[in-house]
Each structure stands twice: as structure tokens, then as C-alpha cells.
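Working notes for the structural subgroup meeting. M.R. asked for a predicted model of this chain before we commit to crystallization trials. I am recording the input and output together here so anyone reviewing the notebook later can reproduce the run.

Input as submitted:
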Amino acid sequence: MPKGEVLYVCGSCGQGFPRWQGQCPSCGEWNSLCEELPTVQSPNKPAPLKAAEAISITDVGYQAEDRVSTGLKELDRVLGGGIVPGSATLISGEPGIGKSTLMLQVAESLSRSATVLYISGEESPRQIRMRAERLGATTKNLLLLPETGLANIEKRIEQIKPGYVIIDSIQTLYRAEVQAAPGSVAQVRECAAYLVGIAKATGIPIVIVGHVTKEGTIAGPRVLEHVVDTVLYFEGEKHKQYRLLRAIKNRFGSTNEIGIFEMKESGLIEVSNPSEVFLSERPKGAPGSVVTAAIEGSRPLLVEIQALVAPTKMAYPIRRVTGVDQNRVAIILAVLERQIGLKLSSSDVYVNAAGGVRVYEPAIDLPIALAIASCYRSKPIDSATMAVGEIGLAGEIRSISGIEKRLKEAEKLGFKTAITPRGSKVATKLKLEEAATVKEALSAFLQ
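Returned structure, recorded in C-alpha cell form:
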């Protein structure tokens, strides 16, 4: 880009363009292009770096990374076992969801064995102390630094040499070399890349807090996700007590794990039995309610699938889903109408995974079909019955993975019967009702 030329960068995907446009040609978002001024170069140019040499992979020194526990088992599960030395982790979520509370609890736990530098650009030390008193997170090794200048932060890290660094939040930091306001696309990208460089050079793990917009994307560019090692999303309703922590990217572990917390006055409390939590408010004997067992990473999770079918007066019936895959629901509706004969084309259909959890695996096809048919025929399915199975376009029920884990979790919570694909040879105390087709499953449980 020529000197002095303005660049317009998309705040959703990070793509740059020479002129402003109403819609980003790259990702399709509207009104997401922001003006980015050119970076001011320092008059003292650094000496050119020595070119790196290519070496054989067998000659590279290697030792297994020692992970450090955060003190919260649910967070350790999502991270893949704990914090890796020299890693950069991004924790994002809507404002007020509990990110700062979680970070203060983690900082208190880590400060028992090392110095933790908590850098806050949003709150004063007095405000943080007030929250720390409520959470019981006051220790000598927890150092507070109210600073937004990246150069000053780097100096303090060099002086203190902490064991861990927490940045709350990335939207408040700025580099003097970048002619843009804090929180802009340019500042967020440059500050994040600089912090990652510090983590790799010093071996100090850095945790970065980033807010997300109302559309659910990280404020600033999504290029943050490519810069850091791990990206965690904090999900949940601010007016409800349960929070889900989900890994979107993890270079050191699985991205299928989730952590579940409950927000209380004393902070975030780990939920030891999430299946029981998600089923605690389940209505008994209500049509359109079926329990299924999903697998999130290595954890089986019992979830209630709800469906509501109502006659429509519109030319086009409404289809609304929450927490499940909308495309899978459309396929299931077509199968039910074609193979079973349910007249769903003249009805509005709503499908929901209760409790705010998101489940997108094919194993929940059968419970979705059962819930829709149950509500359509106004016939409830026994509350002690759960169902798992994938549905094909011909109406057949296909086998799924991890069925033994799923049935053991259902057995622990007192379920008596399980509807499974035919040929599920599993040793369990549950009564297995095997079905080869959706029609077979519906005729057995919805007479």
C-alpha cells in the first residue's frame, strides 16, 4: 500500500479493501468496513534479522509440555488439561457474561504457585479489589496493573517477570505506532500479534480477554483467532445462571470439549453433573419432549429435545430451531412427511434443545423426529425413555458412535428404556427398544 493511503478493513473477517463498500465482498457482512490509517514507521530502523536455517525435524529439541492446572477442572477440560507454557489464549464472550470473574478466579488459583500480572484497561485497582473480596481472590502474588499502552506493559513484564499474564481486555490496548483508536481493527490486530510474540519469546502464558459483538463475532477482526493458540467462547444468557465454555480452536487439545459453570454471588461454580441440570425443569407427561444423549468431546450429556407443532395461517409455514442444526431438522421434516405421512407442510414447527446447549451431531435425529411426531399427535413419550439414532433419507435409523457411553449416562440418571438403532449390542441395565426405521419407532411408542 503506498505511503499515506487509507485502507478499509472488514471487522468481521479482517479482509482489507482500497475503498469503502456497504457490504464486505469477502464474508458478506453489511456495514463492517472500518477505516484503517497506515502504520507510522519508527525513524530508527532495527537491524535486519539473521536469516533462519533449515534443519531436520529429527534434530529439533523436544520435550513434552508440562501443563499447569488453572484450579478449575471444567476450564482445564476445555484447554486440554491445563495451560501450556508460552501459549496465548483468547477468552471471548458478550459483555457481562462473566469473563472477568472467571479470569480473577483463575488468577487467584495460579498466584498460589507463581506471580500473576493482571492487566486491566477497563477497571481501576479499587474496582478489581472489590470484586476480588467478593470472590475471595486476594493474594500477595496477584499484581494489578491499570495500563493500556502496550509499550509500558512490555516494560512491566520485563521488570516483574511474572509467571502468568492476563489482559482484560484486548479492546482497550493500543500501540503508539498505529494511527487508530483503541478497539479498532488495526489496534486489536497489532496488539494481539505483539502479545503473542512476547509469550513465545519469554515462555510466559498470556490469557487475552476479548468482547464479542451482538452478532457473536469477536469485536475487531476475526484474525485474532488465527493469531492465538487457543480460542474459548463463553456462552450463556446474562439473566440465567448457567454458562458454557466452548473451545473453538485449540492447538494443544480437542475442540469438542465444553465446560459448564453456574454463576453465583461467590463467583463461577463448576457444575459436576450437567445432565441433571439440563433435565431439572423438564415437564412430565408433556407431548413434544424427548431426552437424548449427546457426546461433547469425551463427556456424554443428556439433553431434552423439545418440539412444538401448530397449524399455520401463513402461506409459508414457519420453521424455527434453537440449539440444533436447522438443515438436519429440514431433512427430518421431509422424512416424516414422506415416509410417515405427517402433514407438516401446513404446520409451523419449532425445535429447541433445552438449557441453552447446542447439539449438532446426527445422533439426535431420532429424538427430534420423536418429539415432532409426539407433539403432532398430542401423545407424550414416557419420561423414563430416551432415544438416540441417525436418520437416513429413506427413513432408516443408522448406528452411531459411543452408544455405550450414552446409555451409561442415561442409566445413572434413572432412565429405564432406550430407543436405539437395530443391532446395538451393548451391555446395559436399560431396556433396549431397537428400531430399524422411524416408522417402526413411532408405531412402538406413539400408538
